[in-house]
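Below is one protein, fold included:
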Amino acid sequence: MKYVRILFLAIPFLLQSYKSNNHNHQQQHGKHWVSLFNGKDLDGWKPKIAGYPLGENFGNTFRVADNILSTRYNEYDSFNSRFGALYYDKKFTNYRLKVEYRFVGNLTPGAPSWGFRDGGIQYHCQPPATVGLNQPFPVCLEYNLLGGKETGERPTGEICASGIYVEMDGKRNNSYCTSPTVKRTFAGDQWVTAEIEVMDGKITHFINGEQVLQFENPRFDSTHLEGKKFINAGKDMVRDGYISLQSNSHPMDFRKIEIMEY
């Protein structure tokens, strides 16, 4: 019994030592979470909305209030295919990105029906300065954010590939969007945590901490009008890119945007 008591007394110290060593290990290797959103304004971010030049926040689409970054369309007369994105002003290579989001309100008048509770986190994006004036979507990979409808399943976390293709189980993706392997539907206005991990060509999607999809080897698509422009001397592997949040016609809120670079 004496040895058992000693063991129980020692456990808290062992756990504390492990946490301390693990924390130090992460710090030594630059592995710590950094917030990309300051909760006050759009510092470090730049909008690009179809039909408008980079930096013009048409209709005050992207706005910040009460520590929440939102997409809103109340100043639009009609959505009219004005798809957009808010780009963070830095290129990333290997990392884990964490975003807390929710859908609110109603679909914007003039939006496509598929826009209902449809948004996205775009990554491996082409440089925002190279996005055409009327280009609706960048060359990128997209973690598609979907909200549930009144009935049925509508799982979030699928991969949509624009001008880029990926490999799943050794085979090239055969559709623009591919559903997650693990299907989770979130209805209503609840907050959900989406995470993307990019590590040396292998990419994993998580939802509320659960792995839902994995794929690898993203490459620029030589058959895509925009994607082929980024193939240089036959080199088509996508190794890095920019991160952006879509404005896809349904109002959304984002309250935490963090990244851990590897």
Remarks:
- The first strand starts at residue 34 and ends at 35.
- The helical segments are 2-28.
- Residues 1-32 form one domain.
